[in-house]
User: Fold this.
Amino acid sequence: MFSGASPRSYGLAGSIDLEGRVVNEQDVARVLASCDMPDYGDGREVLHAQPVNFALDHRTGLSDPRGQMGQELATDMHMLTVDAIAIQNLAHCVKRCDLELAGIASSSYVSALSALVEDEQELGAACVDLGGGTTGVSIFMKKHMIYADAVRMGGDHVTSDISMGLQVPTAMAERIKTFYGGVYATGMDDREMIELESDTGDWEHDRRRVSRAELIGIMRPRVEEVLEEVRSLLDAAGFEYLPSQKIVLTGGGSQIPGLDGLASKILGQQVRLGRPLRVHGLPQAATGPGFASAVGMCLLPPAHRMNGGTLTFRLNAILCAASNAPCAGSRRTGDAKRAKFRRCGVSISA
Assistant:
């Protein structure tokens, strides 16, 4: 599970001639290889590369074209890249713990897998994963992720504002945010006082009290700033053109009281808190929005299967196409690039 690292989304397209034959797995691999790889720059790694749509002649919206006949097969693919150094640091840390890294997935992607209902994934919805250091945004359409990005702010920035505003340690600021935080102040909040402790041991000298309204006044500007950045990302992605425009909030930061109401005002859409939906028997402590990404990792392998069997393809064809080298004779270039992709756990699947 991975978040941040300046994600960038790319839309790829490719097509091949079938000459009236029945589509098989080799044809699907060829059409994926026909997609033009963009120049995403040095120091970037591919985190996700997945076909989001297949079209056979004039029939579009196919999830699995195998077994059907036509003259032309086309596909649309979504590719997500991130900073390579972040991936390498994470892989190195895991390796030093004597563990093997099976793969990496975007946290906003896996959160959406567990928190979005079927209609939201089909008709269009955005998952906003409010983490500690970053806030991830993913957009789903036709049960596929079609866009992903991130805001370089999260719950830790709210905690930092509380720490500086109230002049308390970060650990105490996190505790105050968890127990007394919010984004809407009422008349009662002016009278509700919060005791601030100190680590010096001089309780008489260091004791202070602040109102909950003062705490909310510190938290709300930062939360509004995060949501404004999220709105900018959604506008840039053309989210308003989707048939359904629901927004689901996940992550530990989404549990701030009143955040869903504030998000509805700023984002102007239907907003709800997302919880893990597709895993039964979870303990009560693991059913909140903060566990959406962890549960989504458990759902990741089934999400990469198509009806009628697993449809997973090696990246050999695409890597050869990207390097303009024939597949059979591109062992040095192809193997190096495959190893590079394999470190990220990348697979091309529907």
The longest strand covers residues 44-56.
